[in-house]
Design brief:
It is a single chain. This protein is of the alpha+beta class. It is built from eleven helices and ten strands. The radius of gyration is 39 Å and the shape is elongated. It starts with a helix and ends in an 18-residue tail after the last helix. Bound molecules: phenylalanine. Phenylalanine (PHE) binds next to strand 9 and strand 10.
Amino acid sequence: MTDYRTLESDARGRIDAAADLAALEALRIEYLGKQGSVSLLLKTLGAMSPAERQEKAPEIQHLRQTVADALAARKAAMEAAELETRLAAETLDLTLPAPEAPRGTVHPVSQVMDELAEIFADLGFAVATGPEIEDDWHNFTALNMPESHPARAMHDTFYFPEESGAQGRTTAQQGGRMLLRTHTSPVQVRTMLSQGAPVRIIAPGRVYRSDSDATHTPMFHQVEGLVIDKAIHLGHLKWTLETFLKAFFEREDIVLRLRPSYFPFTEPSVEVDVGFAIDGGRRVLGGSGDEPGHGWMELLGSGMVNRRVIEAAGLDPDAWQGFAFGVGVDRLAMLKYGMDDLRAFFDGDVRWLRHYGFSAFDQPTLSAGVGARA
Ligand code: PHE
């Protein structure tokens, strides 16, 4: 009896004095573990006479319970104390001003693409897309550039390694060698094939050419335009481009000059120049390039879609005709927002992005202005 009492008060004292959770755990093992002193006492019950067991069992059980309770109580107290210290240390002063949330900006290329979609949606154009990893047939052959066509050499194409079996003639079924598309024009073909006619789309996206200097990057952005219908002619093309450029540059005095040109996929082909004036050393779009002190800047390629392209895209060229154009999106952004180095577009320098980027809330809309800056 006294044995148990001594053991109990001894255990209580040590448990209360335990410095930390590890010390407490060591005590638990010492008393209640498999080889613990209280556990061993419980084992002695088996060897006792029934009368003795009847007397001792409740005492030993009581001892075990008391020690277990003391351990639990001390552990709870320690945890509560620890929480108190943490709460005291981690105070949050709600009266302080909120820190500035880090804010990203919308890249000018994304912004310009949104502006284009907005302007052309108003003219009834949908936005179409195509793969950046393209096949030879869609990128070249269907656009009237068969294997031997010299215009292919002008495209500085990134080809994927030739797969065995993919050699030989490129057909619509067998797209031929894979490549990174060199222009957005393959989307013309894909759209006509998948939607038939009539068509009224723009197709903005990335294009790739193995070319790199101050004004060329191996990846850049274009937007393709395509209209296919019954009686479309060059007048529609000129009006569409004029309307688009006036809305985009937010100036009524945009003047275009159409020059005969050559693209395999358009016939006739038209190079479009836009008039500019020099103002404080900078070129500012607007006015005729023929005025004194003015000039013409080459802006985009376009033309009436070649009937061979319409045919390759599965439509009857005697029933359908239309125009197409292709513009550099990065170029449009530079002209509108005044950047002078194309390479900076793709450096990911946060200072540049902060300076030229747009607020995510600055959605271009025709009513609020497609060029509004927050
Ligand atoms: N695909 C041509 C280029 O990348 C541009 C273009 C598109 C020209 C459509 C005419 C018609 O240079």
